[in-house]
Design a protein that fits this description.
alpha+beta; four-stranded antiparallel β-sheet; 4 helices; elongated
Protein backbone atom coordinates (compact mmCIF):
# COMPACT_ATOMS: atom_id res chain seq x y z
CA UNK A 1 0.00 0.00 0.00
CA UNK A 2 1.44 3.35 -1.01
CA UNK A 3 0.64 6.61 0.73
CA UNK A 4 1.53 10.17 -0.21
CA UNK A 5 4.27 11.86 1.79
CA UNK A 6 4.74 15.65 1.65
CA UNK A 7 8.28 16.98 2.04
CA UNK A 8 9.88 20.41 2.41
CA UNK A 9 13.66 20.72 2.24
CA UNK A 10 15.53 23.32 4.28
CA UNK A 11 18.25 24.83 2.12
CA UNK A 12 20.39 26.06 5.00
CA UNK A 13 20.21 23.26 7.57
CA UNK A 14 20.32 20.19 5.30
CA UNK A 15 17.12 18.81 6.81
CA UNK A 16 13.82 17.64 5.34
CA UNK A 17 10.49 18.22 7.07
CA UNK A 18 8.05 15.36 6.33
CA UNK A 19 4.28 15.29 6.78
CA UNK A 20 2.15 12.15 6.54
CA UNK A 21 -1.58 12.84 6.28
CA UNK A 22 -3.72 9.94 7.40
CA UNK A 23 -6.99 8.99 9.02
CA UNK A 24 -5.94 10.53 12.34
CA UNK A 25 -3.81 13.56 13.08
CA UNK A 26 -0.99 14.23 10.61
CA UNK A 27 2.36 12.75 11.58
CA UNK A 28 5.49 14.86 11.20
CA UNK A 29 9.19 13.99 11.11
CA UNK A 30 12.46 15.84 10.57
CA UNK A 31 15.26 13.84 8.89
CA UNK A 32 18.60 14.63 7.29
CA UNK A 33 18.77 15.17 3.53
CA UNK A 34 21.08 12.16 3.13
CA UNK A 35 18.60 9.85 4.91
CA UNK A 36 15.80 11.18 2.72
CA UNK A 37 17.79 10.64 -0.51
CA UNK A 38 18.82 7.12 0.51
CA UNK A 39 15.17 6.28 1.20
CA UNK A 40 13.86 7.95 -1.99
CA UNK A 41 16.72 7.84 -4.56
CA UNK A 42 14.44 8.86 -7.45
CA UNK A 43 13.74 12.32 -5.98
CA UNK A 44 15.52 15.09 -7.88
CA UNK A 45 18.51 16.51 -6.01
CA UNK A 46 17.32 20.01 -6.91
CA UNK A 47 13.80 19.51 -5.57
CA UNK A 48 12.96 21.62 -2.52
CA UNK A 49 9.35 20.57 -1.95
CA UNK A 50 6.82 18.07 -3.24
CA UNK A 51 4.71 14.99 -2.70
CA UNK A 52 5.94 11.45 -3.26
CA UNK A 53 4.43 7.98 -2.93
CA UNK A 54 5.91 5.98 -0.05
CA UNK A 55 5.61 2.37 1.03
CA UNK A 56 5.15 1.24 4.63
CA UNK A 57 8.79 0.11 4.81
CA UNK A 58 10.03 3.52 3.65
CA UNK A 59 7.82 5.29 6.20
CA UNK A 60 9.09 3.09 9.02
CA UNK A 61 12.69 3.82 7.95
CA UNK A 62 11.94 7.54 8.32
CA UNK A 63 10.48 7.08 11.80
CA UNK A 64 6.72 7.08 11.12
CA UNK A 65 4.36 4.77 12.99
CA UNK A 66 2.50 2.85 10.27
CA UNK A 67 0.58 -0.41 10.11
CA UNK A 68 2.01 -3.30 8.10
CA UNK A 69 0.67 -3.63 4.57
CA UNK A 70 0.70 -6.68 2.36
CA UNK A 71 3.77 -6.77 0.09
CA UNK A 72 3.36 -6.31 -3.66
CA UNK A 73 2.89 -9.66 -5.37
CA UNK A 74 5.89 -10.60 -7.51
CA UNK A 75 3.57 -11.76 -10.30
CA UNK A 76 2.63 -8.11 -10.90
CA UNK A 77 6.13 -7.55 -12.31
CA UNK A 78 6.25 -9.60 -15.47
CA UNK A 79 8.81 -7.92 -17.73
CA UNK A 80 12.52 -7.22 -17.34
CA UNK A 81 13.88 -4.07 -19.01
CA UNK A 82 17.58 -3.23 -19.44
CA UNK A 83 18.69 0.37 -20.03
CA UNK A 84 22.00 1.99 -20.96
CA UNK A 85 23.25 5.36 -22.25
CA UNK A 86 22.46 6.06 -25.87
CA UNK A 87 23.03 8.76 -28.46
CA UNK A 88 22.40 12.43 -27.69
CA UNK A 89 21.76 11.87 -23.97
CA UNK A 90 18.89 9.43 -24.48
CA UNK A 91 18.58 5.90 -23.09
CA UNK A 92 18.65 2.69 -25.12
CA UNK A 93 16.03 0.42 -23.55
CA UNK A 94 15.71 -3.31 -24.32
CA UNK A 95 12.89 -5.63 -23.38
CA UNK A 96 14.71 -8.80 -22.33
CA UNK A 97 13.66 -12.12 -23.89
CA UNK A 98 12.49 -10.28 -27.02
CA UNK A 99 14.25 -8.48 -29.86
CA UNK A 100 12.63 -5.15 -29.03
CA UNK A 101 14.93 -2.21 -28.42
CA UNK A 102 14.12 1.49 -28.47
CA UNK A 103 15.47 4.90 -27.59
CA UNK A 104 13.63 7.01 -25.01
CA UNK A 105 14.08 10.30 -23.20
CA UNK A 106 15.66 9.58 -19.78
CA UNK A 107 13.16 11.75 -17.88
CA UNK A 108 10.20 9.90 -19.41
CA UNK A 109 11.80 6.52 -18.62
CA UNK A 110 12.47 7.51 -15.01
CA UNK A 111 8.96 8.91 -14.57
CA UNK A 112 7.40 5.66 -15.82
CA UNK A 113 9.67 3.20 -13.99
CA UNK A 114 10.72 5.16 -10.88
CA UNK A 115 14.44 4.58 -11.54
CA UNK A 116 16.82 6.96 -9.74
CA UNK A 117 18.14 10.04 -11.54
CA UNK A 118 21.64 8.89 -10.63
CA UNK A 119 21.31 5.49 -12.32
CA UNK A 120 22.58 5.56 -15.89
CA UNK A 121 22.72 1.82 -16.68
CA UNK A 122 21.01 -1.27 -15.32
CA UNK A 123 17.82 -3.31 -15.41
CA UNK A 124 14.45 -3.02 -13.75
CA UNK A 125 11.32 -5.17 -13.40
CA UNK A 126 8.20 -3.50 -14.75
CA UNK A 127 4.57 -4.36 -15.27
CA UNK A 128 3.27 -4.96 -18.76
CA UNK A 129 1.41 -1.62 -18.57
CA UNK A 130 4.65 0.23 -17.75
CA UNK A 131 6.47 -1.55 -20.58
CA UNK A 132 3.69 -0.52 -22.99
CA UNK A 133 3.93 3.08 -21.72
CA UNK A 134 7.67 3.02 -22.50
CA UNK A 135 6.79 2.01 -26.06
CA UNK A 136 7.14 -1.77 -26.26
CA UNK A 137 4.58 -3.71 -28.29
CA UNK A 138 2.94 -6.92 -27.08
CA UNK A 139 0.86 -9.42 -29.05
CA UNK A 140 -2.88 -9.33 -28.31
CA UNK A 141 -4.14 -11.64 -25.58
CA UNK A 142 -6.29 -14.45 -26.92
CA UNK A 143 -9.70 -14.82 -25.31
CA UNK A 144 -11.83 -17.91 -24.79
CA UNK A 145 -14.30 -17.01 -27.55
CA UNK A 146 -13.49 -15.32 -30.82
CA UNK A 147 -14.89 -11.81 -31.22
CA UNK A 148 -16.92 -12.80 -34.27
CA UNK A 149 -18.67 -15.76 -32.57
CA UNK A 150 -22.22 -16.23 -33.69
CA UNK A 151 -24.86 -16.82 -31.01
CA UNK A 152 -27.17 -19.73 -31.77
Amino acid sequence: MKTILTYVRSGTKGRVSLTLEGAGAPQRALVSWSTFIVTFPYVSLRSMTGEIPATSAQLRQLGFDVADAAPIAFEAYTEQVAYSPGPHGNLVVSLLETNQELIINPRAFRRITGVSDRAYMGSVSVTREQAAAIGFIFPPVETEEPIHAVAI
